[in-house]
Design brief:
- By secondary structure, the chain is an alpha+beta fold.
- Among the domains are: 111 residues, Immunoglobulin-like; 118 residues, Immunoglobulin-like (Sandwich).
- Strands 1-3-4-8-7 form a 5-stranded antiparallel sheet, with no helix packed on it. It has a 5-stranded antiparallel sheet with strand order 2-10-9-5-6. It has a 5-stranded antiparallel sheet with strand order 17-14-13-11-20, with no helix packed on it.
- The protein is elongated.
């Protein structure tokens, strides 16, 4: 009797396990049917660029900004976006070029199928009839998973989107999050050691500040430094490549000697100005045009010595001539 009961219990337990496994398999199959496979999706591209550093909401000043959004798929084209920032939280209203998606979810399709409707961003039509969606934004300059539910296919299609920090207006990103604080490897320049002049372009701030161009550049061991001379005497320090640089002059417009991190591309710097009621850090970019490099001919010590002697001789002759003229004038007067 005990053996029969034991056999019966084992059989029941086996049936329950098989049934549970079958239900799980069916549930998994059901969920997978609602998520588009890789072969069903359009080709995807990488939205992140080398050197990008994620920027969170706490590093962006409160406000509403137009922002550019990259997409990994041409089938998920974002034509317009506004970024809303308040107390460190970011959201965005994005507009898609088409009307193929009923709702969006910030994550992957396999996550979306497990969520209820409250987790989704459903479309709203704008004044032109285009589909818009309000979504949370975790970070700028970071690839974010965004899946859309297709109206026609009734499946979730995964994409990756990226909100570009460099598309925001100057002043939107707090200087504490500036790339100027990040230490990068310095580009080795293909110039011989020596002194040069190189054209440099300044962008950023209010647009009123300027710098001298071309700038004086010194190359040593294939690394370059530049003398940056501002149009104002109110800059007391600069931050470049993670380091603070003080002025190198005591009178006149502010001058700094800074490393050139890269040529022919924008490098981010910070200039601190004391022109306002209190010191204020401002983010700028500098772009050094390597093709404009001109060698500065330095005179040798021998040449400098000859020039000095020549100048002294000229002064002596001039003084002697003046004295002769004065002497003659006195003699003439005595006569």
């Amino acid at each position: 009797m005990k053996r029969i009961l034991k056999t019966f219990l084992v059989a029941v337990l086996t049936i329950l396990i098989v049934s549970q496994s079958s239900l799980e398999i069916r549930a998994t199959e059901s969920m997978s049917d609602k998520v588009a496979s890789g072969s069903e999706r359009a080709s995807q591209s990488n939205v992140e660029e080398e050197g990008m550093t994620p920027i969170s909401g706490k590093d962006v000043n409160d406000g509403t900004y137009d922002v550019k959004v990259e997409s990994s798929s041409a089938m998920f084209n974002i034509t317009k976006a506004t970024l809303n920032v308040k107390e460190g939280k970011m959201t965005s209203v994005i507009t898609l070029s088409g009307k193929g998606y009923l709702k969006l979810f910030m994550g992957k399709g396999e996550e979306a199928v497990k969520k209820d409707e409250t987790a989704f961003s459903k479309y709203l039509e704008d004044e032109t009839g285009a589909y818009t969606y309000e979504i949370p934004v975790e970070s700028l300059d970071k690839g974010l998973q965004c899946t859309g539910f297709s109206k026609r296919k009734e499946k979730w299609y995964d994409h990756e989107i990226l909100f570009r920090a460099d598309s925001l207006p100057h002043g939107a990103i707090k200087t504490s999050a500036s790339k100027a604080h990040k230490k990068l490897p310095i580009e080795k320049v293909k110039l011989d050691d020596g002194a040069y002049t190189i054209k440099v372009q300044l962008k950023g701030g209010s647009g009123r500040a300027s710098i001298d161009s071309p700038a004086k550049v010194t190359v040593k061991d294939k690394e370059a430094t530049a003398i940056i001379k501002w149009s104002s005497a109110n800059y007391d320090y600069m931050i470049v490549n993670g380091k603070k640089y003080k002025t190198i002059n005591k009178k006149g417009n502010s001058q700094f000697e800074i490393p050139i991190v890269a040529f022919n591309e924008e490098m981010t710097v910070i200039g601190d100005t004391t022109a306002m009621s209190k010191p204020h850090e401002i983010e700028y970019t500098l772009k050094f045009d390597l093709n404009s490099a001109q060698v500065v001919e330095e005179r040798s010590s021998y040449t400098k010595g000859l020039l000095t002697i020549g100048a002294l001789c000229f002064v002596a002759v001039l003084v002697g001539s003046v004295m002769v003229i004065i002497s003659k004038m006195r003699k003439k007067k005595d006569e």
